[in-house]
Amino acid sequence: MNRKSILLTTALVLGVAAAQTSAAQTSAAQTSVAQTSVAQTSPNVTATAAVTAALANNADVKTAQANLDKAQAANRAAQADPSALVAAKLGASGGESQAQAALRGARMNTLQSTVTAYTALLEAQENVALQTLQASVDSKAVQVAQVKQGIGNATALDVTNAQNTLSGSQQNLADAKAQVSLASARLSTLTGLGSGVRAAGAASAPKLSTTLSKLQAGLNTLTAQVSANNDLAAAQLNVKLADNDFTPARTLQDARTALANAQRGVDSAGKSATQSLASAYQTAQNSYELLSVAGAREAAALKTYNQDAARLKSGTISTVDLQTSQLALKKSQYSRLQAQDNVLEALAALSVASGQNLTGIGGTL
Predict the structure, then answer these.
(1) Domain of 114?
(2) CA 45 – CA 317 distance, rounded (Å)
(3) Domain holding 185: CATH number?
(4) Are the CB atoms for 232 and 265 separated by under 8 Å?
(5) Residue 95, in any domain of the structure
(6) Which residues are CB-neighbours of 275 under 8 A, at least 6 positions away?
(7) Could you tell me where the DSSP H helices lie in the chain?
(8) Cα distance between residue 228 and residue 236, in whole Å
(9) 123 found inside a domain
(10) At 357, phi and psi to the nearest 5?
């Protein structure tokens, strides 16, 4: 290597190292200030705390609970009234079961919407960290291009391209921060926890241990199925009351027609619920498989990063190369987080479809 080459290489290395040190110190200071500010002003909540708060504050849940209290009182009165006819007693009993199903459904829907809002906020927060690292990598690329241009090893176009890439990364970072604010506001609205709420971390989703057939056995508790069954019971009673010698034949015929329609309604509700359940169950199974793939990719990226860290110590790669490896690891971690969140969201959707809480959050609803 001649003297000119040595001088050029030395200038490049020293320039990049100095820029990296300055950028790292500035970034560390900014991160420290930002983290301190967030810690002082923004409450961190877990997924469990968010769901608990939402169930306590959701307007639909409160309304459904009030309707159930009213229906229970009406049913007790009807069953205790010696003058109440059988149709009235059946209607009151059906009203209570319908109100119970509606309350359960409202709770399940609140669970799902809160889980979705929580995972959206968590991913938005992690995306800020990812885009911050991306902008840092692109900033160093600009510095490298400028140093190379200064020693005649890069063109002005190379510098311009690097700057354009950095500008795009900075815009992505600004967008990511805006998404955090929007997601936080959404979760705050659902939970009533106040503004500036932040997700404390990923929730651990339980394994899907139950079978599809077991879940199908509980579909009769769904709101649509309960309503259809109530209609069927009322139609059966009307046929029974009309099937005698003192009721016009046309009344009995109409009652039987209504009974046939009610039976078709039950069948239709059952098929719809079964199909929705099967689809949600398959989606949940798929989400577990995708999480496994994402986990394997994260493990591979971590292995590569650790190898590159060792290579940096041995002097075979630069800190710029290591940061590129770090970015790849960060991206794989973000993808794994998304896959983990998808599992929880799929379980929440399956909970709505089955009428049973399978998320491990919020207890028995």
Answers:
(1) 41-197
(2) 41
(3) 1.20.1600.10
(4) yes
(5) yes
(6) none
(7) 3-41, 47-57, 59-80, 86-150, 156-191, 212-216, 223-242, 249-314, 319-354
(8) 12
(9) yes
(10) -75, 110
Residue 44 pairs in a beta bridge with 198
When divided into structural domains, the chain yields a total of: 1
3-state class (DSSP) for residue 152: coil
Nearest to 355 by CA among 232, 269, 291: 269
Q: Coil, strand or helix: which one is 176?
A: helix
Per-residue pLDDT of the chain (365 residues; tens, 9 = 90+): 443 343 334 343 334 344 344 444 444 444 444 444 433 456 899 999 999 999 999 999 999 999 999 999 999 999 999 999 999 999 999 999 999 999 999 999 999 999 999 999 999 999 999 999 999 999 999 999 999 999 999 999 999 999 999 999 999 999 999 999 999 999 999 999 988 999 999 998 899 999 999 999 999 999 999 999 999 999 999 999 999 999 999 999 999 999 999 999 999 999 999 999 999 999 999 999 999 999 999 999 999 999 999 999 999 999 999 999 999 999 999 999 999 999 999 999 999 999 999 999 988 88
Residue 168, in any domain of the structure:
yes
Q: Which amino acid makes up residue 314? A: S
Q: Which amino acid is at 95?
A: G
Residue 275 inside a domain? The answer is no
- Beta bridge mates, 198: 44
Using CA atoms, how far residue 322 sits from 122, 164, 327, in Å, is: 27, 22, 9
Angle at 341 between CA 337 and CA 347, to 5 degrees: 150
**DSSP reduced 3-state for 78:** helix
Q: What are phi and psi of 208, to 5 degrees?
A: -85, 90
How much is the CA Rg of the chain, to the nearest whole Å? 31
Per-residue tokens: 313: 């110590």
Q: 362: Cβ–Cβ under 8 A, 6 or more apart, which residues?
A: 48, 51, 52, 55, 107, 111
Distance separating alpha carbons of residues 334 and 182, to the nearest angstrom? 19
Distance of CA 295 to the CA centre of its chain: 18
Residue 45 pairs in a beta bridge with: 199
Q: How far apart are CA 355 and CA 108, in angstroms?
A: 7
